[in-house]
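Supplementary Note 2. Why include the ligand at all?

Several targets in our set were suspected to adopt different conformations when bound, so apo predictions alone were not considered sufficient. For every target with a known small-molecule partner we therefore ran a joint prediction. The input for zinc ion is given below.
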Amino acid sequence: MAVLGIDIGGTTTTIGFVTETGEILAESTMPTQGKDHITYYLPRLYEQINTLKSNLTSEINLKGIGVGAPNANFFKGTIENPPNLAWGGVIPLADILEKEFKVPVKITNDANAAAIGEMLFGAAKGMKNFILITLGTGLGSGIVIDGKLVYGHTGFAGELGHLTVKPGGRLCGCGKRGCLETYVSVTGIRRTVSKLLADTMEESHLRDVSQTNLTGEMITEAALRGDRVALQAFEYTGEVLGQKLADAIAFSSPEAIIFFAGLCFITNTCHRTNAQTQCATIKLARHGILLICTFWP
Ligand SMILES: [Zn+2]
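The joint prediction is reproduced in token form.
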């Protein structure tokens, strides 16, 4: 018995056949090419799945498909206007895949899917209350309370990335201003670096890079070399993140906060670069909340 997992990211789609004990039988990736309509994406996805299935060493009994995707609605089985995918509005992806593969399909927000995965097989195994945060282009989150994912009335609960940090602040892809992910994400820290470079005369190697070419890795490397602008950007990012995590902790009382993927580079860099950096996320570790970093390959 096996299930098929599909992780749809803005850049890459990852698929894998997985057993009920979490063993990955086979996996592969393909570019999402989210700027094209979904009618171009689906045939490529089907071919990817069928090729991977035909390469399995033994026949499997496919029981179902689980999909993690941005702006996915668990209740309706739809993907709804994700900012990074120009797929054409509301896509009933669960129905589409059920018709194609004739097995049950469940779909949820990608951070929620990550939280379920960590709860069943990963860092949150045995935990009933935790927050998982994914950080890449944006900031995603999945909140588990009393062993259940929080979905809320519409299916879109637990979106910490859209908590307001500064009323009237930076414009967010969701249409609001001042959301957490406009400050704490790879995009957010790039915006912070650009603002620091514009507002100060501080010397920085990052001045030699155009804003469009600036990457999270460049900022990390600069911070590790002691670049003051990069260090200030990390310090500010950590403070903002810490403030909002403190709010989330007050609300849901987690036993752990699990950082998935890119956020590790922020917390690790805060830790490694400067003992005086008041990285608020590290401070949380001293108050009995377990902080766990996992790596998203
Ligand atoms: Zn927002």
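The pocket of zinc ion is lined by residues 162, 172, 174, 176, 179 (CB under 6 Å). Residues 125-294 form a domain with the Nucleotidyltransferase; domain 5 fold (CATH 3.30.420.40). Comparable summaries for the other entries are listed in the accompanying table.
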